[in-house]
Amino acid sequence: MKNTSIKMLAGIVVMGIIILSGCKKAETGPKGDQGTQGPAGPVVNMTSGGSITGTITGTRKDGVAFSEPFSYMYYFPGMGSSGTLDSSGTSNYTFSFQRQEADIFSSNYSSININTSSKTASTGTLSLNLTFEKALSSTKYFSFNGNISNAAATGLSYNASTGLFSGSFNVTINGFSNSTTNTATVTGNFQANVIQRVQRVYQEGTVKTD
Known about the structure:
The chain is mainly beta and 210 residues long. It has one helix at 2-22, and strands spanning 47-59, 65-75, 84-89, 92-100, 109-116, 124-137, 140-158, 164-173, 184-193, 195-196, 200-203, 206-209. A hairpin with a 7-residue loop joins strand 5 and strand 6. It has one domain (47-202).
């Protein structure tokens, strides 16, 4: 009986050795062909035309005086994206436009709204928003964010045939309205081709297009 058990155990061991010796290590097959390239994602191309340019002068938060030029000439394409002329009556007109740097991810940007009493007025009331950023070193950058309303826009010129609108400004932004917390001066010029929004204007019981 004992001999029979030993023979059975020996047989199992031999069988296991035979099975193991017959197994081979798995091999990695050849690399398959690369799949078809997927469709390209949408590309946003900025449009250039017109500009908002100028110089910001003031004192940084760290007490260092600065004078930085800026020039923004790009905008996203689309109806009226270069600029618009709107009206809410025969003596209330608003010219609106914005420009930025060519890089769509850049924060450098400015927008302008100007209210006038007529399309051909040479002065108007300016609302300005301006962001300017600049690297100072590999570990430091300067950022200016400022806005002002009810300021003066001068030297205005509007060509109804071409839509070209231009002018200039020289404004002082107090420390509460810009990121340096110190008074800053912004001088600049602008030009943009604006498209007029046509709508109904009511005047003395009549309806006309303006």
